[in-house]
Amino acid sequence: MESSTPETPKKKVNLQRVEMSKQSPEVRGQNFDEVAFGYTPEEAMAEASRCLDCKKPGCVGNCPVEISIPDFIRAINAGDFAEGIRIIREKNCLPAVTGRVCPQEEQCEGGCVFAKKGASVAIGRLERFLADWEANQVSTSPSVKKPRPTGRKVAVIGGGPAGLTVAGDLIQLGHQVTVYEALHKVGGVLIYGIPEFRLPKKIVRREVENLKAMGVEFVTSFVVGKTRTIDSLLEEHDAIFVGSGAGLPWFMDIPGNNLNGVYSANEYLTRMNLMKGYTFPAVQTPIKQHKRVAVIGGGNVAMDCARTALRLGAEAHIVYRRSRSELPARLEEVENAEEEGVIFDFLTLPTACVDDGHAWVKGLACQKMELGEPDASGRRSPIPVPGSDYVMPVDAVIYAIGNSPNPLIPATTPDLVIGKKGNISAEDATGKTSKARVWAGGDVVTGAATVILAMGAGRKAARDIHRYLHTLDND
Ligand SMILES: Cc1cc2nc3c(=O)[nH]c(=O)nc-3n(C[C@H](O)[C@H](O)[C@H](O)COP(=O)(O)OP(=O)(O)OC[C@H]3O[C@@H](n4cnc5c(N)ncnc54)[C@H](O)[C@@H]3O)c2cc1C
Asked: Is 186 touching ligand 1 by the criterion CB < 6 Å?
């Protein structure tokens, strides 16, 4: 991490972050509109002026796609927003998304000289500001030079952040790119998982429209492994990138998982987001109105489920077996959930979903835990407290404890080496798999991770695919 060295320019230190205004918790708990309003130009410039413009910026080293952060902040400081967004777009094709959902405190902002004082420059908010500023200009599509066509064809499987990054990078290099997406809409988790109040869907649609304007073709409702196999797609494409994500939910091995009212986070959030259940009856997706909901897990997915259930009028509980400081969710989302009234049941381990006698869940049996010695992850491991069992009365239980890759592509693709957890094995630096002409990246390789890591993997794979396609010209 960068420290204040003689190399760091002398500038007045300002440890006061400019706050971003939000809907009040009472109001936003009743609607699905975006929680945070974003910076005004004046606020963005004030926040940008806090940057010390370090000679060795720790923020850049911590960014998986290596955005030239001090350069775009300097542009904001000078009021040149067009230049700021141009700098970001050199490295990031989804800035309005990452500015909203990246775990900045662990990444760019974690590398800021002010991080130790809890006052890092609000890099994520500034990125979001520029992306939103760009969207409000008369010409909404970023101007792109049309490259000379290479005649090479690439298939991208999955329209999530990894696939969209590969598509954006390769189309700009002149290759013909077709994205094959299983769902009827493109965006992956950004469209079916993360709720509207955290990431408005019009933002994802806009980024997809930008890619279409650049020439990327999208084929939706196309399930690779069923509609066509990878081998069959290889007959008409020079290369394939697999970015099919991790959409297979995990459940705990406890009794009662088959009861009505027990959901995976994927099912619950897909009904709500992709199928707009929260606008029923305006749309045809009914969603049961639950009174008390227990969400098992402590990550972003768990926060999204609990905050969605709360907005639908339920008393929403997060049931997590460790304590607050071990919660893996973004801090901002934990604070938002707390403000909105989500109840956190820490040090609590579910042991069964309880039947009401008519195959509906009526409770979640739990046991209290205490923290023992650190485990392999470095976090203190939870240990059961004897005699602490109880039943929490609930009419819905939502599992948000993780996902692994869907087995369809591995099962239908010979020569693809698959890891223990069902993930596709691929080289870290290039995304190259064991199968010739096939690359992979994002959650399908790493297991459930983050948007920016999926994008970073897509960037590396696109670079290597381009290098490979170039070798074909020299053959
Ligand atoms: C509810 C939720 C909240 C999250 N919140 C955050 C957050 O705040 N910050 C953050 O950084 N990360 C967050 N994440 C994680 C992040 O969204 C993922 O790490 C990221 O989306 C992975 O990108 P990907 O492109 O690898 O996969 P995905 O986004 O999963 O996209 C994969 C796409 O492939 C398609 N597909 C799958 N199989 C096939 C097939 N056989 N044929 C064709 N298409 C196929 C899928 O339909 C999907 O559209 C969250 C995840 C969830 C579920």
From this structure: no
